[in-house]
Amino acid sequence: MYNSHAELLGYERKDGRKGIRNVILVAYLVECAHFVSTEIAQPYKKDGVQVVGFGGCYPNNHASKIMTQLCTHPNVGAVLLVSLGCESFNRTKLARDIEASGRPVETVVIQSCGGTAKSIEKGQSWLQSIISEMVKTKRVKIELKDLVIGTICGGSDATSGITANPAVGLTFDKLVKNQATAIFEETGEMIGCLEDIVARAKSKNLGTEIEHCLNKAARYYTIMGHGSFAQGNADGGLSTIEEKSLGAYSKSGSAEISGLIKPGDVPNFPGLYLLDVVPDGEPRFGFPNINDNMEITELIASGCHIILFTTGRGSVVGSAISPVIKICANPDTFRKMSADMDINAGKVMESKVTLQEVSEEIYDKIIETASGIPTASEELGHQEYVVSYKTFEPIGPNCLVR
Amino acid sequence: MESFKKLIQLSDKDNVLVVCRDIESGEVLQLGSENYLIKEFIALGHKIASRDIAFGEAIVKFNVAIGSALRDIKRGEHVHVHNIKSDFIPTYIIDKGTDV
What we know:
By secondary structure, chain A is an alpha/beta fold. Chain A has helices at residues 34-41, 61-71, 91-100, 110-113, 116-134, 164-177, 194-199, 204-224, 231-235, 241-249, 292-301, 331-337, 347-350, 355-370, 376-379; strands at residues 8-12, 18-19, 23-28, 49-53, 76-83, 105-109, 139-142, 148-153, 181-184, 257-261, 271-275, 306-311, 324-328, 343-344. In chain B, 0% of the residues lie in helices and 31% in strands.
Protein backbone atom coordinates (compact mmCIF):
# COMPACT_ATOMS: atom_id res chain seq x y z
CA MET A 1 0.00 0.00 0.00
CA TYR A 2 1.20 3.51 -0.84
CA ASN A 3 1.38 6.06 1.91
CA SER A 4 0.15 9.52 1.13
CA HIS A 5 3.54 11.09 1.84
CA ALA A 6 5.32 9.17 -0.91
CA GLU A 7 6.45 11.42 -3.74
CA LEU A 8 4.32 11.10 -6.86
CA LEU A 9 5.73 11.66 -10.33
CA GLY A 10 3.40 12.87 -13.04
CA TYR A 11 3.82 13.92 -16.68
CA GLU A 12 4.48 17.57 -17.41
CA ARG A 13 2.60 19.17 -20.31
CA LYS A 14 3.78 22.30 -22.08
CA ASP A 15 0.61 24.18 -21.03
CA GLY A 16 1.58 23.66 -17.38
CA ARG A 17 -0.93 20.92 -16.60
CA LYS A 18 0.24 17.70 -14.97
CA GLY A 19 -1.01 14.24 -15.89
CA ILE A 20 -0.88 10.85 -14.17
CA ARG A 21 -1.02 8.86 -17.44
CA ASN A 22 0.76 9.40 -20.76
CA VAL A 23 -1.94 8.64 -23.30
CA ILE A 24 -1.71 9.11 -27.09
CA LEU A 25 -5.19 9.67 -28.50
CA VAL A 26 -6.54 8.68 -31.88
CA ALA A 27 -9.65 10.86 -32.14
CA TYR A 28 -12.25 10.41 -34.87
CA LEU A 29 -14.44 13.36 -35.79
CA VAL A 30 -17.43 11.46 -37.23
CA GLU A 31 -18.58 7.84 -36.98
CA CYS A 32 -17.44 7.30 -40.61
CA ALA A 33 -13.83 7.60 -39.36
CA HIS A 34 -14.29 5.38 -36.29
CA PHE A 35 -13.26 2.07 -37.87
CA VAL A 36 -10.14 3.53 -39.46
CA SER A 37 -9.19 5.05 -36.08
CA THR A 38 -9.62 1.73 -34.28
CA GLU A 39 -7.48 -0.02 -36.91
CA ILE A 40 -4.76 2.62 -36.62
CA ALA A 41 -4.63 2.28 -32.82
CA GLN A 42 -4.99 -1.52 -32.56
CA PRO A 43 -1.29 -2.58 -32.66
CA TYR A 44 -0.21 0.18 -30.25
CA LYS A 45 -2.52 -0.39 -27.29
CA LYS A 46 0.41 -1.36 -25.07
CA ASP A 47 2.12 1.93 -25.95
CA GLY A 48 -0.73 3.90 -24.41
CA VAL A 49 -2.63 4.59 -27.63
CA GLN A 50 -6.39 4.94 -27.06
CA VAL A 51 -9.36 5.84 -29.24
CA VAL A 52 -12.04 8.45 -28.50
CA GLY A 53 -14.34 10.32 -30.84
CA PHE A 54 -17.60 12.02 -31.68
CA GLY A 55 -19.97 10.16 -34.00
CA GLY A 56 -22.25 12.96 -35.19
CA CYS A 57 -22.01 14.64 -38.58
CA TYR A 58 -23.93 17.78 -37.54
CA PRO A 59 -22.02 20.54 -35.73
CA ASN A 60 -22.50 21.03 -31.98
CA ASN A 61 -20.64 23.45 -29.70
CA HIS A 62 -20.86 21.17 -26.68
CA ALA A 63 -19.38 18.20 -28.56
CA SER A 64 -16.56 20.42 -29.91
CA LYS A 65 -15.78 21.65 -26.41
CA ILE A 66 -15.73 18.12 -24.98
CA MET A 67 -13.47 16.89 -27.80
CA THR A 68 -11.09 19.85 -27.30
CA GLN A 69 -10.93 19.23 -23.54
CA LEU A 70 -10.33 15.50 -24.02
CA CYS A 71 -7.56 16.13 -26.56
CA THR A 72 -5.83 18.65 -24.26
CA HIS A 73 -6.43 16.68 -21.03
CA PRO A 74 -3.42 16.51 -18.69
CA ASN A 75 -3.31 12.70 -19.08
CA VAL A 76 -2.97 13.11 -22.87
CA GLY A 77 0.42 13.76 -24.51
CA ALA A 78 -0.29 13.70 -28.24
CA VAL A 79 -3.26 13.42 -30.60
CA LEU A 80 -3.93 11.98 -34.05
CA LEU A 81 -7.18 13.36 -35.52
CA VAL A 82 -8.99 11.19 -38.04
CA SER A 83 -11.52 12.89 -40.30
CA LEU A 84 -13.53 11.40 -43.16
CA GLY A 85 -13.31 14.81 -44.84
CA CYS A 86 -16.87 15.97 -45.42
CA GLU A 87 -18.23 16.02 -41.84
CA SER A 88 -19.17 19.29 -40.13
CA PHE A 89 -16.66 19.03 -37.26
CA ASN A 90 -14.19 21.93 -37.36
CA ARG A 91 -11.01 19.82 -37.49
CA THR A 92 -8.74 22.77 -38.29
CA LYS A 93 -9.77 24.62 -35.13
CA LEU A 94 -9.40 21.48 -32.99
CA ALA A 95 -5.92 20.83 -34.41
CA ARG A 96 -4.97 24.45 -33.76
CA ASP A 97 -6.20 24.29 -30.14
CA ILE A 98 -4.24 21.09 -29.50
CA GLU A 99 -1.15 22.63 -31.06
CA ALA A 100 -1.57 25.75 -28.91
CA SER A 101 -1.52 23.49 -25.82
CA GLY A 102 1.93 22.31 -26.87
CA ARG A 103 0.88 18.76 -27.67
CA PRO A 104 2.00 17.16 -30.93
CA VAL A 105 -0.96 16.74 -33.31
CA GLU A 106 -1.48 15.30 -36.79
CA THR A 107 -4.63 15.07 -38.89
CA VAL A 108 -5.43 12.23 -41.29
CA VAL A 109 -8.23 13.08 -43.72
CA ILE A 110 -9.43 9.79 -45.18
CA GLN A 111 -10.82 11.27 -48.41
CA SER A 112 -7.59 13.17 -49.15
CA CYS A 113 -5.43 10.26 -48.12
CA GLY A 114 -7.00 7.84 -50.60
CA GLY A 115 -9.21 5.63 -48.44
CA THR A 116 -9.03 3.11 -45.60
CA ALA A 117 -5.71 1.35 -46.18
CA LYS A 118 -3.70 4.47 -47.00
CA SER A 119 -5.16 6.33 -44.00
CA ILE A 120 -4.27 3.48 -41.65
CA GLU A 121 -0.74 3.42 -43.02
CA LYS A 122 -0.33 7.18 -42.66
CA GLY A 123 -1.80 7.21 -39.16
CA GLN A 124 0.37 4.34 -37.97
CA SER A 125 3.56 5.83 -39.32
CA TRP A 126 2.85 9.05 -37.38
CA LEU A 127 2.08 7.02 -34.24
CA GLN A 128 5.38 5.14 -34.52
CA SER A 129 7.32 8.41 -34.60
CA ILE A 130 5.33 9.91 -31.72
CA ILE A 131 5.52 6.86 -29.43
CA SER A 132 9.32 7.19 -29.22
CA GLU A 133 8.89 10.92 -28.49
CA MET A 134 6.35 10.31 -25.74
CA VAL A 135 8.67 8.01 -23.82
CA LYS A 136 10.82 11.09 -23.22
CA THR A 137 7.99 13.13 -21.61
CA LYS A 138 9.38 15.08 -18.65
CA ARG A 139 8.40 13.65 -15.25
CA VAL A 140 7.45 16.16 -12.62
CA LYS A 141 6.51 16.04 -8.96
CA ILE A 142 2.75 15.93 -8.56
CA GLU A 143 0.85 16.77 -5.40
CA LEU A 144 -2.68 16.26 -4.21
CA LYS A 145 -3.50 19.89 -5.02
CA ASP A 146 -2.70 19.13 -8.69
CA LEU A 147 -5.32 16.39 -8.85
CA VAL A 148 -8.95 16.59 -9.92
CA ILE A 149 -11.08 13.67 -8.73
CA GLY A 150 -14.60 12.97 -9.98
CA THR A 151 -17.27 10.63 -8.69
CA ILE A 152 -20.24 8.85 -10.20
CA CYS A 153 -22.39 5.85 -9.33
CA GLY A 154 -23.64 3.27 -11.78
CA GLY A 155 -25.66 0.11 -11.47
CA SER A 156 -26.79 1.35 -8.07
CA ASP A 157 -28.69 -0.82 -5.63
CA ALA A 158 -29.87 -0.30 -2.08
CA THR A 159 -26.39 -1.05 -0.71
CA SER A 160 -24.82 1.83 -2.72
CA GLY A 161 -26.27 4.50 -0.46
CA ILE A 162 -25.31 2.61 2.70
CA THR A 163 -21.70 1.58 2.03
CA ALA A 164 -19.81 2.81 -1.07
CA ASN A 165 -21.44 6.24 -1.53
CA PRO A 166 -21.09 7.52 2.05
CA ALA A 167 -17.52 6.12 2.11
CA VAL A 168 -16.70 8.14 -1.03
CA GLY A 169 -18.32 11.14 0.69
CA LEU A 170 -15.79 10.81 3.54
CA THR A 171 -12.96 10.46 1.00
CA PHE A 172 -14.22 13.59 -0.76
CA ASP A 173 -14.18 15.50 2.54
CA LYS A 174 -10.53 14.52 3.06
CA LEU A 175 -9.58 15.39 -0.55
CA VAL A 176 -11.15 18.84 -0.25
CA LYS A 177 -9.51 19.39 3.14
CA ASN A 178 -6.14 18.51 1.57
CA GLN A 179 -6.57 21.05 -1.26
CA ALA A 180 -7.47 18.66 -4.07
CA THR A 181 -10.29 19.45 -6.51
CA ALA A 182 -13.34 17.19 -6.28
CA ILE A 183 -16.30 17.07 -8.67
CA PHE A 184 -19.69 15.39 -8.22
CA GLU A 185 -22.69 15.45 -10.54
CA GLU A 186 -25.98 13.60 -11.17
CA THR A 187 -28.26 16.60 -10.58
CA GLY A 188 -31.10 14.40 -11.87
CA GLU A 189 -30.52 12.28 -8.76
CA MET A 190 -30.78 15.04 -6.18
CA ILE A 191 -34.54 15.06 -5.87
CA GLY A 192 -35.41 15.60 -2.22
CA CYS A 193 -31.87 16.86 -1.39
CA LEU A 194 -32.38 20.45 -2.56
CA GLU A 195 -32.44 22.17 0.83
CA ASP A 196 -29.34 20.42 2.09
CA ILE A 197 -27.29 21.03 -1.04
CA VAL A 198 -28.25 24.72 -1.35
CA ALA A 199 -27.21 25.25 2.29
CA ARG A 200 -23.73 23.92 1.44
CA ALA A 201 -23.04 26.59 -1.22
CA LYS A 202 -20.15 28.91 -0.40
CA SER A 203 -22.26 31.99 -1.23
CA LYS A 204 -25.97 32.77 -1.26
CA ASN A 205 -25.85 33.55 -4.99
CA LEU A 206 -24.21 30.23 -5.72
CA GLY A 207 -26.97 28.56 -3.68
CA THR A 208 -29.56 30.23 -5.93
CA GLU A 209 -27.70 29.04 -9.05
CA ILE A 210 -27.63 25.48 -7.68
CA GLU A 211 -31.34 25.65 -6.88
CA HIS A 212 -32.10 26.71 -10.49
CA CYS A 213 -29.89 23.91 -11.75
CA LEU A 214 -31.69 21.23 -9.68
CA ASN A 215 -35.12 22.55 -10.69
CA LYS A 216 -33.99 22.47 -14.33
CA ALA A 217 -32.95 18.83 -13.91
CA ALA A 218 -36.27 17.85 -12.27
CA ARG A 219 -38.22 19.55 -15.07
CA TYR A 220 -36.04 18.03 -17.78
CA TYR A 221 -36.46 14.47 -16.49
CA THR A 222 -40.21 15.01 -15.99
CA ILE A 223 -40.52 16.02 -19.68
CA MET A 224 -38.47 12.96 -20.65
CA GLY A 225 -41.08 10.96 -18.70
CA HIS A 226 -38.38 8.89 -17.07
CA GLY A 227 -36.20 9.52 -14.04
CA SER A 228 -32.60 8.39 -13.77
CA PHE A 229 -33.77 4.98 -12.65
CA ALA A 230 -33.33 1.56 -14.29
CA GLN A 231 -34.93 -1.82 -13.67
CA GLY A 232 -31.74 -3.05 -12.02
CA ASN A 233 -32.03 -0.30 -9.40
CA ALA A 234 -35.41 -1.73 -8.38
CA ASP A 235 -34.14 -5.33 -8.43
CA GLY A 236 -31.43 -4.15 -6.07
CA GLY A 237 -33.95 -2.87 -3.54
CA LEU A 238 -34.28 0.80 -4.52
CA SER A 239 -37.97 1.69 -4.72
CA THR A 240 -38.07 5.32 -5.84
CA ILE A 241 -35.93 8.07 -7.39
CA GLU A 242 -35.98 9.84 -3.99
CA GLU A 243 -34.38 6.82 -2.34
CA LYS A 244 -31.77 6.50 -5.09
CA SER A 245 -31.09 10.26 -4.87
CA LEU A 246 -30.32 10.23 -1.16
CA GLY A 247 -27.83 7.45 -1.65
CA ALA A 248 -26.21 9.07 -4.67
CA TYR A 249 -25.96 12.48 -3.01
CA SER A 250 -23.97 11.08 -0.07
CA LYS A 251 -20.96 10.69 -2.45
CA SER A 252 -20.44 14.46 -2.28
CA GLY A 253 -19.59 14.35 1.43
CA SER A 254 -20.21 17.38 3.60
CA ALA A 255 -17.72 20.01 2.40
CA GLU A 256 -18.69 23.49 1.31
CA ILE A 257 -19.47 23.73 -2.43
CA SER A 258 -17.16 26.17 -4.22
CA GLY A 259 -18.73 26.18 -7.63
CA LEU A 260 -21.21 25.03 -10.23
CA ILE A 261 -19.63 24.11 -13.57
CA LYS A 262 -20.80 22.69 -16.89
CA PRO A 263 -19.21 19.85 -18.90
CA GLY A 264 -15.77 20.86 -20.15
CA ASP A 265 -15.33 23.70 -17.63
CA VAL A 266 -12.15 23.02 -15.64
CA PRO A 267 -12.14 24.38 -12.05
CA ASN A 268 -9.18 26.75 -11.63
CA PHE A 269 -8.83 26.56 -7.85
CA PRO A 270 -9.19 23.68 -5.39
CA GLY A 271 -12.49 22.80 -3.72
CA LEU A 272 -15.70 20.89 -4.25
CA TYR A 273 -17.69 21.44 -7.46
CA LEU A 274 -21.06 20.37 -8.76
CA LEU A 275 -21.05 19.51 -12.47
CA ASP A 276 -24.36 20.40 -14.15
CA VAL A 277 -24.78 17.84 -16.93
CA VAL A 278 -28.41 18.69 -17.78
CA PRO A 279 -28.67 20.82 -20.97
CA ASP A 280 -30.03 24.37 -20.88
CA GLY A 281 -33.14 25.48 -22.73
CA GLU A 282 -35.94 23.27 -23.99
CA PRO A 283 -35.09 19.56 -24.21
CA ARG A 284 -33.68 19.04 -27.69
CA PHE A 285 -31.47 15.97 -28.02
CA GLY A 286 -33.11 13.54 -25.59
CA PHE A 287 -31.90 12.28 -22.22
CA PRO A 288 -29.15 14.39 -20.62
CA ASN A 289 -26.76 11.49 -20.23
CA ILE A 290 -27.70 8.27 -21.93
CA ASN A 291 -25.42 6.08 -19.77
CA ASP A 292 -22.72 6.13 -17.10
CA ASN A 293 -19.83 6.53 -19.54
CA MET A 294 -21.24 9.75 -20.95
CA GLU A 295 -21.12 11.16 -17.41
CA ILE A 296 -17.58 9.86 -16.91
CA THR A 297 -16.46 11.38 -20.23
CA GLU A 298 -17.88 14.77 -19.20
CA LEU A 299 -16.17 14.58 -15.79
CA ILE A 300 -12.88 13.84 -17.57
CA ALA A 301 -13.50 16.75 -19.97
CA SER A 302 -13.74 18.91 -16.83
CA GLY A 303 -10.23 17.83 -15.93
CA CYS A 304 -10.69 14.72 -13.78
CA HIS A 305 -7.49 12.67 -13.47
CA ILE A 306 -9.28 9.83 -11.65
CA ILE A 307 -12.93 8.75 -11.36
CA LEU A 308 -14.36 7.10 -8.24
CA PHE A 309 -17.15 4.82 -9.52
CA THR A 310 -19.46 3.21 -6.98
CA THR A 311 -21.61 0.25 -7.98
CA GLY A 312 -23.95 -2.14 -6.22
CA ARG A 313 -25.29 -4.30 -9.07
CA GLY A 314 -21.79 -4.54 -10.56
CA SER A 315 -20.67 -2.33 -13.44
CA VAL A 316 -17.57 -3.42 -15.36
CA VAL A 317 -16.83 -0.17 -17.19
CA GLY A 318 -13.65 1.88 -17.12
CA SER A 319 -12.77 4.83 -19.32
CA ALA A 320 -10.42 6.19 -21.92
CA ILE A 321 -7.92 8.85 -20.73
CA SER A 322 -8.42 8.69 -16.94
CA PRO A 323 -8.35 5.65 -14.63
CA VAL A 324 -11.60 4.57 -12.97
CA ILE A 325 -11.47 3.21 -9.40
CA LYS A 326 -14.41 0.87 -8.87
CA ILE A 327 -15.87 0.73 -5.38
CA CYS A 328 -18.28 -2.14 -4.88
CA ALA A 329 -21.12 -1.45 -2.45
CA ASN A 330 -22.67 -4.91 -2.34
CA PRO A 331 -20.74 -7.76 -0.67
CA ASP A 332 -22.46 -10.44 -2.84
CA THR A 333 -21.58 -8.55 -6.03
CA PHE A 334 -17.98 -8.20 -4.86
CA ARG A 335 -17.69 -11.97 -4.40
CA LYS A 336 -19.06 -12.55 -7.91
CA MET A 337 -17.12 -9.81 -9.73
CA SER A 338 -14.04 -9.13 -7.62
CA ALA A 339 -11.67 -8.99 -10.63
CA ASP A 340 -13.57 -5.93 -11.88
CA MET A 341 -13.48 -4.15 -8.51
CA ASP A 342 -10.79 -2.12 -6.73
CA ILE A 343 -12.44 -1.66 -3.33
CA ASN A 344 -14.89 -3.84 -1.38
CA ALA A 345 -17.07 -1.36 0.49
CA GLY A 346 -19.76 -4.00 1.03
CA LYS A 347 -17.77 -5.45 3.93
CA VAL A 348 -19.22 -2.63 6.04
CA MET A 349 -22.50 -4.58 5.95
CA GLU A 350 -21.11 -7.85 7.20
CA SER A 351 -18.14 -7.06 9.41
CA LYS A 352 -16.89 -4.57 11.95
CA VAL A 353 -15.14 -2.52 9.24
CA THR A 354 -16.35 1.09 9.36
CA LEU A 355 -17.17 3.57 6.59
CA GLN A 356 -14.22 5.65 7.79
CA GLU A 357 -11.85 2.70 7.26
CA VAL A 358 -13.21 2.08 3.75
CA SER A 359 -12.84 5.79 2.96
CA GLU A 360 -9.15 5.61 3.98
CA GLU A 361 -8.75 2.60 1.70
CA ILE A 362 -10.24 4.61 -1.19
CA TYR A 363 -7.93 7.53 -0.39
CA ASP A 364 -4.86 5.28 -0.48
CA LYS A 365 -6.10 3.77 -3.76
CA ILE A 366 -6.27 7.27 -5.28
CA ILE A 367 -2.61 7.88 -4.35
CA GLU A 368 -1.61 4.44 -5.64
CA THR A 369 -3.47 5.04 -8.93
CA ALA A 370 -1.90 8.51 -9.30
CA SER A 371 1.51 6.84 -8.89
CA GLY A 372 0.87 4.87 -12.08
CA ILE A 373 -0.41 1.53 -10.81
CA PRO A 374 -3.31 0.42 -13.06
CA THR A 375 -6.83 0.01 -11.66
CA ALA A 376 -8.88 -3.15 -12.26
CA SER A 377 -10.64 -1.72 -15.32
CA GLU A 378 -7.33 -0.46 -16.78
CA GLU A 379 -5.80 -3.89 -16.22
CA LEU A 380 -8.73 -5.46 -18.08
CA GLY A 381 -8.33 -3.00 -20.97
CA HIS A 382 -11.55 -0.98 -20.53
CA GLN A 383 -11.47 2.31 -22.48
CA GLU A 384 -15.10 3.42 -22.84
CA TYR A 385 -16.14 6.98 -23.77
CA VAL A 386 -19.36 8.59 -25.03
CA VAL A 387 -19.65 12.08 -26.54
CA SER A 388 -23.05 13.26 -27.72
CA TYR A 389 -25.19 16.27 -28.61
CA LYS A 390 -26.17 18.87 -25.98
CA THR A 391 -26.80 22.61 -25.70
CA PHE A 392 -25.43 24.74 -22.86
CA GLU A 393 -25.31 28.38 -21.91
CA PRO A 394 -22.00 29.44 -20.31
CA ILE A 395 -21.97 29.56 -16.48
CA GLY A 396 -22.81 32.90 -14.87
CA PRO A 397 -20.52 35.08 -12.67
CA ASN A 398 -22.07 33.73 -9.44
CA CYS A 399 -21.15 30.13 -10.20
CA LEU A 400 -17.53 30.22 -8.99
CA VAL A 401 -16.78 31.42 -5.45
CA ARG A 402 -13.18 31.77 -4.45
CA MET B 1 -21.28 -17.79 6.21
CA GLU B 2 -22.76 -16.12 9.26
CA SER B 3 -23.11 -12.38 8.78
CA PHE B 4 -22.20 -9.96 11.50
CA LYS B 5 -25.25 -7.77 10.98
CA LYS B 6 -28.68 -8.78 9.68
CA LEU B 7 -30.68 -5.62 10.00
CA ILE B 8 -29.80 -1.92 10.17
CA GLN B 9 -31.73 1.24 10.96
CA LEU B 10 -30.13 4.18 9.12
CA SER B 11 -31.76 6.91 11.20
CA ASP B 12 -33.94 6.93 14.31
CA LYS B 13 -36.95 8.51 12.54
CA ASP B 14 -37.00 5.81 9.83
CA ASN B 15 -40.00 3.50 9.48
CA VAL B 16 -38.06 1.06 7.31
CA LEU B 17 -35.06 -1.14 8.13
CA VAL B 18 -32.47 -2.51 5.71
CA VAL B 19 -31.57 -6.22 5.59
CA CYS B 20 -27.82 -6.93 5.36
CA ARG B 21 -28.08 -10.35 3.70
CA ASP B 22 -30.66 -12.46 1.86
CA ILE B 23 -33.42 -13.43 4.31
CA GLU B 24 -35.50 -16.61 3.91
CA SER B 25 -39.22 -16.76 4.73
CA GLY B 26 -39.78 -17.72 8.38
CA GLU B 27 -36.63 -16.13 9.78
CA VAL B 28 -36.89 -13.95 12.84
CA LEU B 29 -34.63 -10.88 12.76
CA GLN B 30 -33.63 -9.05 15.86
CA LEU B 31 -32.69 -5.40 16.21
CA GLY B 32 -32.17 -4.20 19.77
CA SER B 33 -35.10 -5.51 21.77
CA GLU B 34 -37.36 -5.82 18.72
CA ASN B 35 -38.07 -9.06 16.84
CA TYR B 36 -39.35 -9.16 13.27
CA LEU B 37 -40.89 -12.31 11.80
CA ILE B 38 -40.17 -12.32 8.07
CA LYS B 39 -42.85 -14.04 5.98
CA GLU B 40 -41.27 -13.82 2.50
CA PHE B 41 -37.84 -13.95 0.84
CA ILE B 42 -36.11 -10.56 1.13
CA ALA B 43 -32.89 -9.85 -0.77
CA LEU B 44 -29.84 -8.09 0.65
CA GLY B 45 -30.27 -4.30 0.68
CA HIS B 46 -34.07 -4.40 0.51
CA LYS B 47 -36.31 -2.81 3.16
CA ILE B 48 -38.83 -4.06 5.72
CA ALA B 49 -41.36 -1.99 7.70
CA SER B 50 -40.22 -1.34 11.28
CA ARG B 51 -43.86 -0.69 12.30
CA ASP B 52 -47.32 -0.75 10.73
CA ILE B 53 -47.50 1.92 8.01
CA ALA B 54 -50.87 3.27 6.84
CA PHE B 55 -51.98 3.87 3.23
CA GLY B 56 -50.67 7.29 2.10
CA GLU B 57 -48.12 7.60 4.90
CA ALA B 58 -44.58 8.76 4.05
CA ILE B 59 -41.87 6.11 3.89
CA VAL B 60 -38.88 7.45 5.81
CA LYS B 61 -35.31 6.25 5.17
CA PHE B 62 -32.10 8.17 6.03
CA ASN B 63 -34.52 10.45 7.96
CA VAL B 64 -36.05 11.65 4.65
CA ALA B 65 -39.32 10.79 2.84
CA ILE B 66 -38.51 8.52 -0.09
CA GLY B 67 -42.13 8.07 -1.24
CA SER B 68 -45.55 7.09 0.14
CA ALA B 69 -47.43 3.89 0.91
CA LEU B 70 -49.81 2.61 -1.79
CA ARG B 71 -51.66 0.50 0.80
CA ASP B 72 -51.43 -0.47 4.45
CA ILE B 73 -48.10 -2.15 5.15
CA LYS B 74 -47.66 -4.52 8.12
CA ARG B 75 -44.68 -4.45 10.50
CA GLY B 76 -41.96 -6.77 9.13
CA GLU B 77 -43.39 -6.72 5.58
CA HIS B 78 -41.21 -6.13 2.49
CA VAL B 79 -41.40 -2.44 1.47
CA HIS B 80 -40.77 -1.96 -2.24
CA VAL B 81 -42.24 -0.93 -5.62
CA HIS B 82 -45.36 -3.10 -5.07
CA ASN B 83 -46.52 -1.14 -2.01
CA ILE B 84 -44.88 2.31 -2.20
CA LYS B 85 -44.60 4.98 -4.91
CA SER B 86 -42.39 7.94 -5.74
CA ASP B 87 -43.86 11.38 -5.11
CA PHE B 88 -41.80 12.75 -8.02
CA ILE B 89 -41.29 10.55 -11.08
CA PRO B 90 -42.95 7.11 -11.38
CA THR B 91 -40.54 4.18 -11.02
CA TYR B 92 -39.94 2.33 -14.27
CA ILE B 93 -40.33 -1.45 -14.10
CA ILE B 94 -39.82 -3.75 -17.10
CA ASP B 95 -43.06 -5.57 -17.95
CA LYS B 96 -41.85 -9.15 -17.98
CA GLY B 97 -45.17 -10.44 -19.38
CA THR B 98 -47.53 -13.07 -18.00
CA ASP B 99 -45.44 -16.13 -18.92
CA VAL B 100 -42.88 -15.36 -16.20
